[in-house]
Amino acid sequence: MGKIIYWLSYYLVNIYLKIVHNWKVNGRKNVPKEGPLIVVSNHVSYLDPPIVGSAVNRQLHFMAKEELFEKKWFGFLLKQIGTFPVKRGVPDKKAIRRSLEILKNDKVLCMFPEGTRIKGDKLGDAKPGVTLIALMSESPILPVGIKHSDQKDEALKVSIGRSFSLEEYYDRKLSRQEKTEVGELIMKKIKNQLNCLD
Question: 184: domain range?
Fold first, then answer.
C-alpha cells in the first residue's frame, strides 16, 4: 500500500511541478539505479521534500520533525510513504538506527543537512547527524541543488550531481576537525550543484 501511495504521489507532484512551476531537472542519469544511497539537498521551502522525491527516480525515505506526526491522519500518510520522525535539537538514536536500517537494506535515505529551511543564497552548516549516518553506513552520497525563483516566469530548477563517497574517512576514529571537514565537504557538493543552476 505504501509503495502505491508513494508512486502515485510521485507522478502527481511531477505533473504539478511541471504545470505550475515549469520545473527543470538536470542530472537524473546520475542517480544510481540500485544499492544504498544518501540524497542530500539544500532546504529553502516546505516543498523541497516532494521536489527532491519527484526529481529522483527511486523511492526516498525522509526524516521529518516529530511535530508533523502529531496529527494522526497526516502522521499515518507520512509513514505510508516511508517518512519517519526525528527529534530536533537532541541526538535521536532511534532515528539514526532507522536511517542505518534503510541504507543496510539498499534503500535511499534523503536528508537536508542544514536541518531546517534556510532562506537566501547562503548555505548553513551540516548537522552532526548527517555526517554520523554517512560515515557509519559508508553509503554513497548524491548531492542535489534546488533553486527557487521569486519570478513567476522563471522555472524552478533542480540539479543532481554525481554520487561521491567519504572513503578516506572510513575505518578510523575521526577528530572533531575531520568530522567538521566531512560536513563541509557535503555542503560544498551541494553548493556545486547550485552553481550549476546560475
Answer: 2-195
Can you give the CATH number for the domain in which 12 is found?
Answer: 3.40.1130.10
pLDDT in tens, 102-111: 999 999 999 9
Give residue 125's Cα distance to chain centre.
15
Torsions phi, psi of 116, nearest 5? -160, 170
What would the mean pLDDT of 164-168 be, rounded to a whole number?
Answer: 95
Structural domain count of the chain: 1
3-state secondary structure 8-46: HHHHHHHHHHHHHHCCEEECHHHCCCCCCEEEEECCCCC
Place of cell 532511534: 94
| Among the listed residues 141, 7, 129, 24, the one whose alpha carbon sits nearest the alpha carbon of residue 80 | 7
Quote the pTM value: 0.92
Three-class SS of residue 104? Answer: helix
- Residue 179: which H helix or E strand, with range? helix 176-195
75-128 pLDDT per residue, tens? 888 888 889 988 877 778 999 999 999 999 999 999 999 988 887 778 999 998
In single-letter form, the type of residue at position 58 comes to R
